[in-house]
Amino acid sequence: MSDLTSSSATPPELLESLYPLHVAIDSNPAVIYLSSLNTNSRRTMTNALNTIAYLLTSGHADALLLDWSRLRFQHTSAIRAALTEKYRPATVNKMLSALRGVLKAAWRLGQMSAEEYQRVTDVAGVSGETLPAGRSLSMGELVALMQACSQDDSPMGVRDSALIALLYGAGLRRAELVALTLEDYSAQERTLKVQGKRNKQRLVPIAGGAAEALTEWLKIRGSEAGGIFLPIRKGGHIGWGHLTTQAVYNILLHRAGQANVAHFTPHDFRRTFVGDLLDRGADIVTVQKLAGHANVSTTARYDRRGEVVKRKAVELLHVPYQRTGEGKA
Question: Tens of pLDDT along 231-289?
């Protein structure tokens, strides 16, 4: 995809002033905006802003070097068009949200007027809906994964059982899982205090096998303060600190190979958590709160019940198909 700086609608003198930006960190709108986000969101929005900055400057400036205060409506409208050609609607809207966020920071810093800010952000989101990526895991696959862990009698096997149990039994995001500390779990109430997106906290009850798996791991982990899920070195020595999100991915990849389970992502546990609860009759608003979704429409995207209804509907039809040669006398 070509860069946006070749557009005849963009004045040459404005293009030359888009980069580089040499301002103090506390006056950089990208830094101000990104610092207001939690760690996981900051990583996502930094990538989004870098993508936009590279588009505008043919790769010469990233988000921290671009002079965002110089952007005008022709830039943001061209950015929207370019992103729409390459990404799904949800991704484009997330990137436009990052763009609006950094432009608001530029306005608040006094780097653009209120009128300039209103004009440059007057870009509509992208409509359209795609099916959620990933898949649901079957109960057989969940059982196989847990069996693979139980056959490992080392501390790693107990930890991984608890890790998988919470990813499914509590519907946690990877970033939420690795951020958990011992003080976030109330053994008496059997609840987890989860730090979600945009620093929103929620209480998630832990029940059944998930609670049992977590209890067994905590017996081995010990009562020292720190992360619930700790790295384990060779020889079964338990380290300190927190697991990384990449470590969680690697653990699941390893256990999937042992269990002979087809490829899945950590987020697929969350998809399965939501879908299974709705299949079993849980109220969608309650599921929304458990999952930490900002809008119930997000929860509804993982509702599989409509697919079952649609399948039953098409099965009412009779298609008079005949194999080749069957209709001949």
Answer: 998 878 898 888 999 999 999 999 999 999 999 999 999 999 999 999 999 999 999 99
Percent helix / strand / coil, the chain, rounded to 5: 55, 5, 40
Residue 189 makes CB contacts below 8 A (sequence gap 6+) with: none
CATH at 155: 1.10.443.10
Could you tell me if 176 and 115 lie in one domain? no
- Tell me how far CA of residue 150 lies from CA of 111, 154, 273, in angstroms: 59, 9, 21
> Cα(90)–Cα(96) distance, rounded to whole angstroms?
10
Residues marked as catalytic = 173, 197, 267, 270, 293, 302
- Report d(CA 215, CA 238) in Å as an integer: 17
- Structural domains counted in the chain: 2
* Cα 118 from Cα 121, distance rounded (Å): 5
